[in-house]
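Researcher: Here's a chain I'd like modeled. Treat it as a single chain, no partners, no ligands.
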Amino acid sequence: MSKQLWEPSAQRIKNSQLQKFTDFVRDSREVEFVDYEALHQWSVKHAEDFWQSVWDYADIKSSVIADTVLQDKDKFPGAKWFPGSRLNFAENLLRYRDNRVALVCRLENGERKSLTYAELYGQVEQLASALKSEGVVVGDRIAGFMPNVIETVVAMLAATSLGAVWSSCSPDFGLNGVKDRFGQIQPKVLFACNGYYYNGKVIDTRQRVLDVCNEIDSIQKLVLVPVVDEGNFKDEIKIPHRVDWPQFLHTEPEALSFAQLPFDHPLYIMYSSGTTGVPKCIVHSAGGTLVQQVKEQLLHVGLTREDKLFYFTTCGWMMWNWLVSGLAVGATLILYDGSPFYPEAKSLMDMADEESISIFGTSAKYIAGLEKAEVKPVESHKLTDLKTILSTGSPLSPESFDYVYRDIKADICLSSISGGTDIVSCFTLGNETLPVYEGELQCKGLGMAIEIWSDSSEKLVAEKGELVCTQTFPSCPIGFWNDPGDQKFRAAYFDMYPNIWVHGDYGEETEHGGIIIHGRSDAVLNPGGVRIGTAEIYRQVEKLPEIVDSICIGQQWQDDVRVVLFVVLREGVDFNEELQQRIRKTIRSETTPRHVPAKILTVTVIPRTISGKIVELAVRNMVHNQPVKNTDALANPEALAQFSERVELQN
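Model: Modeled as a single isolated chain. Structure tokens:
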């Protein structure tokens, strides 16, 4: 059994949003719960009562209330949530119009800006009026090629207030990556930055913006946001249809009017990673996104108006969409754009102190990077207000759990969370009223019928298997853009089992209700017929101080599969036989002989998506001399070449 690392105080449990919700349900539904597991079972068994309770507790604003919560509940996909209701996503995020700070934006170069809720409302009103005068109507697509700055939030809210559909990607995408995404959805207006700051450099994006506009002929208006002072640029680049952000805003706008639309009206178009082909355009509904994300932030994170919520993310990752929903709760959101390790590895920890951040969200890779850099905030920072750390993007290793409690802060709720772009939310996540166990996600999400299944569709506990969801949920995507008959959509999630969502995670449910994610099921290794999650190997490799990064694949070899491990060494480390044997011994002693790699090879860098995820399938394809169909989805596509060049893999 995993080691318990933290337990909430009785006072924290009593004051939690989850306890208040439980009391609310008790009073309104006349039902009692002895523990979280009982609440979760009720939320799944009585899904309609649960989601109506979330709606009521969160005070979702709507002009028309649904007569029923769920229609065609046995259709998955195809069920209809809150049919007949009419609402607007932006209106729910702009319910507060006071002088409390809504957004704080910090850039890597030290710039800091902020907006109150009243100022945010005013800017959205100005921009919505400008978009309306450009002919933007319900259903139009508005795209953002933007960093994580205040203007991006304002643009999204203005677009969705009119009933337009928002889609974004970060400005580190190359031309083909942008074209493969926005080219499919044909946006009418593009918001783009003139540049951004990263790792001490000024990146000029104007030529890429011009190329995007030339390649996508649906773009009628380009709104250029001056994130970077153009005094940094040597030459002028003329872009047709360009208007700068300050000039585009209406100084005397029409009063903001929120289009009242069906619950399942399209809100966001998001994209699959695109490493196995052209990215799939995943369409999410306004109502589904709203109730799901507010549920998570209120009941699982415990967000309140007093909190300062930060998530290190780009606008190309779903955590940006998740972060901005914190406005519906009235919290202060901290936005950051730049390298998390510039100018020093402790930079974001400095910011946590300076901004009094109470909920700090990041990736497992960042936490591992802090430990590798030997940053010990417990010795150098106050972190007085910090009460929760959220981690996602990849499984958080048990060693990283230990690092957080040893070297960051002892009294903190560390919540590893897992879900994805596919559902713009989480299946398994945190809970400030439950203990934290080393290496585990604390619980299944309320209202999410999560199970771990064997190959023969049997529910497993304390055994590894496929993570599935057996019932519909509000944030199930509407479908894919331009997908007649939902053929690609059904093939992506429902092909394995009818009416069952298969998420693609290889996981394990613990005896006390936690979840361990062992990696992506499509990257599971299968030497000698034994299924091995890659995260099990990464956990052991990360223990070694000589190893900076790693990636593991299964190579077809002599009618079987052999495990091949690629490692990036710390500068100055000699890749000798002693180190290789130590890697093998560490893996063998902590796992099984099947986990031990047949080959260990060095590479200079690990290929990752722009959102920071390692791409095991792409590496596997390179090793097997198979094409990688869309390298524009990668932050460093040049890193792939070294894997096909490794002659050592042929013997």
